[in-house]
Amino acid sequence: MSAAQRISSKTFAALSVRNFRLYFFGQLISVSGTWMQSVAQGWLVLQLTGSSVDLGFVVALQYVPMLFFGSYGGLVADRHEKRRILYCTQVSAGLLALLLGVLVTTHHATFATVLVLAALLGVVNLFDNPARQSFVQEMVGRDLIVNAVSLNSVLMNAGRLIGPGIAAGFIAVVGTADCFYANAASFLAVLIALLMMRKRDFVPMKTVEREKGQLRLGLRYVRDNPLLRHVIIAVAIVGTFAYNFTVTLPLLSRITFHQHSAADYGVLMAAMGAGAVIGGLVIAHRSRPTPKMLAFLVLGFGFFMTLVALAPSVRLAEIALVPTGAFSIALIATANATLQLNSSQQMRGRVMALFAIAFLGTTPIGAPLVGVIVSWTNPRVGIGVGSGLALLTGLWLVVSYRRDVRNFVALEAVQSAQTV
Length: 420
Hints:
The chain is mostly helical and about 425 residues long. The protein is built from 17 helices and no strands.
């Protein structure tokens, strides 16, 4: 076997599992549709109101249910069969996309209706996200979890690469509504993939019986584990202040660079998506995440995001978004795999729900805040605030990692002395 073949087989190892392969290609189609809807929805809000604050609130409202009830979504994932939950969530999300398309087609779409549908989609994601995250190990097992999570991140961002470009073309040629129709149709790919999976190939996972205090138990479990706690805190800070690109990038395109075409905004999103695919493939090739790696990725993400904020032209911003996207997805894939590898089967749904709250559920705080910052200053400042806090978070992780290593060495020394 040649070196290229060895690298390829290691990078795409999880795709050798039939159930994951079906899931992967079904999600690739669906995620492309989701990003089409994301671009179209942002453009629709700017057409309806022209307000950066309103755009921030629409983005935020999709994640309000996750912020307040995310732990409950994780508990449901721990108690029930993940595939059955995903059937329900995929059908619901498809119907909501179809309804939004109909409202736009019939000229009944208003800012209020967009807000309501965004909130309903948030309820769907409340159950979908922890079930989908914890379903990965059920398909591939523990040995391939890092590779599968990284490939899953690649497909999410391949959709980001494909979806915005298609959305820009749809908006320019046939109109915004068709982006929503395309997204509704794309959920059929996931439903077909779920139906075609072989139940006998799943790795058996324990479910949790209903008991009192299970939500509090999940919170204590993460609190008492320094590694899990540090990852969740870091993701929460970066997720709140830095991962607001659906707010900042359209404003950077429209206000800073005076690009009033949806195609120009789509290019910015596609540049970041291209980088994210590269970053995901690099992480997929690695065998195991480490706290040191996570700290490095957070610092790299903050650095290149700073370059985006300072870019003097739209072309240089597009170039800087490529490594920004690479570090962003490598960061999230590493954090995700770290949590899954270091949490028990019975707690994994609740741990991944806390991850979803930290990464997505903080959007109701971060998106409006960034929208307000941009309205008071400009998009560069909004992006710069996020990049600065990402850099500080990376430095905190470095300090925490070194302290944990020293504590571990000291504990080993004490135990060795006691043994002697």
